[in-house]
Amino acid sequence: MSERINLIWLEGQDCAGCTISVKQASNPTLIDVLAGALPPLRGLYLVYHPTLMFEWGDDAARVIVDAIDGRYDPFVMILEGAIPDERRAGDGVFCVIGEYEGNVLKLDEIVERLAKRCAAAVAVGTCASYGGVPHGNPNPTGARGLLDFLGKGWKGALGLPVICVPGCPPRADNIIQTLGHAVLAARGVSPPPELDEMHRPRSLYGATAHELCSICGFYSGGTDAHAFGERGCLGALGCKGIITNCNASSSWMDGYGGCTETGVPCFGCAHPDFPDPPTSPFFAKAPASAFVKETFAGTVGHIKMGLARLRRRKI
Ligand code: SF4
Ligand code: SF4
User: Which one of 61, 244, 254, 303 is CB 3.0 to 4.6 Å from 268, fit for a cystine?
Assistant: First the structure.
């Protein structure tokens, strides 16, 4: 049950925002997980994290070299940030994660080598999942996410494909719950997370930000905000919740926050195409087709619900 499982968290082309996010996790907290407060998740060791680990220099780089040699098996590889195409770098290099005995450790090579023996691979954030900000047009470094880099058919030692937790950054509990679910699956305590076609856990990304939006009543009632601070749906101000699968529109942590809940339009940061269209321009309305589809489905739904309310109730 508590067999040791190592966590190796790499940072590539990133801003460390996902790391800042995961530190806010509350259900459960990162400390509870790493301190072994939750029996089914005991035995997890964060052996490598460039921002959070104590080791630095050669001592830190040695963990990666040893992991490639199998000394940290079994381990889960977690990637934050995108992976550049080093062939475009000419005589230079785009993304180095360290140096060991005079050799540079290029991100793309390290990911490729760790992927050969990791138990599972989790892409945290939109950059790691699909390329995100570094991949945005014109994408000078040829950045891409782990799903594209390893391929949709890739599977880790546990038989799981790349698991994506998009968001820029993702909601903290989405990160920790996905990692926890992968570990529980590894230990045979739960079935593996069910993933959608973009490799997101359906339990967390199965609905759009619009469907879960706490101010969706304004949309249904036809009240639009036309300036920031006005009461109303934020669709006219560029909200992309209607085209983005994400559960952060009504709560960020512990029932507090949530993007649209705080009056900020959803920017579609968890969308696979972010920050390119259709998520941008950020303050332009989402594509009309999304609203046509939603209006049609909503009208049919309202009629059905109205008729159901008129039928005699059977107990
Ligand atoms: S368009 Fe945005 S603000 Fe309006 S209901 Fe949908 S998610 Fe909420
Ligand atoms: S609700 Fe929208 S802006 Fe907020 S985290 Fe989700 S995708 Fe990003």
Answer: 244
Q: How many whole angstroms separate alpha carbon 169 and alpha carbon 83? A: 17
Residue closest via CA to ligand 2's atom 1 equals 249
Per domain, the residue ranges of the chain are: 5-204, 216-303
pLDDT at 255: 83
213, 267, 274, 282, best to mutate for ligand 2 pocket (most atoms within 8 Å of CB): 267
**pLDDT tens-digit map of 37-75:** 999 999 999 999 999 999 999 999 999 999 999 999 999
- The ligand whose atoms approach the alpha carbon of 220 most closely is 1
C-alpha torsion sign, points 296, 300, 306, 309: negative
More confident residue, 131 or 251: 131
> Is there a common fold for 5-204 and 216-303?
no
Q: Over the stretch 157-168, which tens digit does the pLDDT of each residue have?
A: 989 999 999 999
Report whether 82 contacts 127 (CB < 8 A): yes
Closest CA to 180 of 192, 169, 170: 192
**29/24 Cα distance (integer angstroms):** 7
4-8 mean pLDDT: 95
Cα–Cα separations (whole angstroms), residue 236 to 8, 211, 266, 304: 42, 17, 12, 28
The CATH code for residues 5-204 is 3.40.50.700
From atom 1 of ligand 1, which residue's Cα is the shortest distance away? 235
Q: How many CB atoms lie within 10 A of CB 156?
A: 24
Q: Is domain 216-303 annotated with CATH 3.40.50.2000?
A: no
What crossing angle do the helices spanning 57-68 and 107-115 adopt, rounded to 10°? 40
Beta bridge partners of 253: 256
